[in-house]
Task: inverse folding
């Protein structure tokens, strides 16, 4: 019979997840600035979503492998931490190159290809660094404390987001240039990536030094498997999927609607805010009406997107404190996604840049639930020696909807666009709200172990 995992001190739960703070700064910088970077390089709004295809595709390949092989990795530094360290190292290097895609003397097309490759590597490495934190909670935290542990992760995640989102706006406030020549990224964005990389180094080293993972013998006392594992009997991914608990599939369905919604937020918020709140000027480019990305209004809107995403992070942190107070985890999930859906839809009705704070506070509630509750439900339904493999496979429920949303984004935006007029990117945020509302209804079909 398996031994019960011991209760951990709050400081121990905090240390397990602290590196998440630095990783999320990198993720926030990516989320808030990638569409702005590619628009600056010359991408058309209808093609913006295609640049977001490579990251989730790589995530679907890399994350299950990280989970599977970290389940079988035992080193003097731990089983999950080596993967965390390698992922963070790659992310740090890419963060120094990506914002310079337009400053290396390359042609427009070459610069966009270079930027796309850097984005792929950045997203892959961030996810490689992020996934071990979720796995360590599954390895080291008992069921009673998991909601608290994932809520701490959610809090740190959103605290990191808050910092990352605000960096460009803060640097502009302190006097760094918020505009740049055609095809180049402003200094406010460049230095945000540089400082974010430095913080990531500190956070990952902190977690690596203070968290001691269980040795194999001790781990197996808490997580016994039904039969001894061997190379001949090691199940493949298809076998694991066949034996996956119902929670894996039913939570995965909710995940589909949620992550598709947030893919549209990351892709189209910059253009939406520039249009609805900053009245950014347009130009005619190759026969299409597009926003003038060199204008002060567009770049002010780009910095303000970081502020709005920071407000979302504040909403997420506040809501993460509320989530454990729900007695029914499904009700917590449902209410959170409804609030997020309302937040997305309300953006289309607000033209004041400060009134948009209300919208993004509500969006933050949905985001907080997405970060904490799916993993609480899933890890409570898992047992045995394949927790990492299942969490890696579960990452596909994050990547797949992003792939579908990115592939269809330009087509859907085309349906909303009148020839000869600017593409109404804000309509994609309304669609994101509808997707979250559908996801909230899907919550009620989740089958957890109870």
Result:
């Amino acid at each position: 019979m398996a031994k019960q995992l011991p209760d951990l001190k709050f400081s121990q739960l905090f240390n397990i997840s602290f590196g998440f703070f630095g990783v999320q700064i990198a993720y926030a910088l990516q989320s808030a600035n990638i569409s702005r970077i590619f628009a600056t390089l010359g991408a058309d709004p209808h093609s913006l979503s295609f640049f977001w295809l490579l990251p989730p595709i790589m995530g679907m390949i890399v994350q299950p492998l990280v989970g599977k092989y970290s389940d079988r990795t035992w080193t003097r530094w731990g089983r999950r931490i080596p993967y965390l360290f390698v992922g963070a190292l790659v992310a740090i290097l890419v963060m120094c190159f990506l914002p310079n895609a337009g400053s290396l003397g390359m042609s427009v097309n070459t610069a966009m290809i270079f930027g796309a490759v850097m984005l792929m590597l950045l997203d892959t490495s961030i996810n490689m660094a992020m996934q071990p934190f979720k796995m360590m909670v599954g390895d080291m935290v008992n069921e009673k404390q998991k909601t608290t542990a994932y809520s701490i992760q959610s809090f740190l995640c959103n605290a990191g987001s808050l910092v990352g989102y605000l960096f460009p706006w803060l640097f502009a406030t302190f006097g760094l240039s918020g505009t740049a020549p055609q095809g180049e990224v402003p200094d406010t964005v460049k230095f945000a990536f540089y400082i974010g990389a430095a913080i990531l180094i500190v956070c990952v080293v902190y977690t690596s030094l203070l968290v001691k993972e269980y040795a194999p013998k001790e781990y197996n006392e808490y997580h016994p498997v039904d039969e001894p594992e061997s190379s001949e009997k090691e199940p493949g991914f298809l076998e694991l999927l066949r034996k996956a608990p119902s929670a894996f599939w039913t939570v995965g369905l909710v995940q589909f609607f949620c992550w598709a919604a947030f893919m549209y937020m990351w892709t189209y918020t910059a253009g939406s805010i520039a249009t609805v709140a900053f009245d950014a000027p347009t130009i005619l480019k190759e026969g299409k009406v597009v926003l003038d990305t060199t204008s002060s209004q567009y770049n002010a809107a780009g910095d303000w997107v970081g502020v709005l995403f920071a407000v979302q992070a504040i909403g997420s942190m506040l809501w993460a404190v509320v989530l454990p107070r729900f007695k029914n985890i499904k009700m917590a999930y449902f209410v959170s996604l409804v609030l997020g859906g309302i937040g997305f839809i309300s953006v289309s009705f607000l033209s004041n840049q400060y009134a948009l704070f209300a919208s993004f506070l509500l969006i933050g509630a949905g985001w907080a639930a997405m970060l904490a509750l799916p993993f609480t439900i899933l890890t409570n339904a898992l047992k045995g020696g394949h927790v990492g493999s299942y969490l890696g496979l579960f990452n596909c429920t994050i990547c797949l909807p992003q792939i579908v949303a990115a592939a269809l984004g330009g087509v859907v935006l085309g349906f909303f666009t009148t020839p000869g007029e600017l593409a109404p990117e804000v309509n994609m945020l309304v669609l994101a709200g509808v997707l979250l509302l559908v996801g909230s209804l899907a919550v009620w079909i989740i089958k957890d172990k109870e």
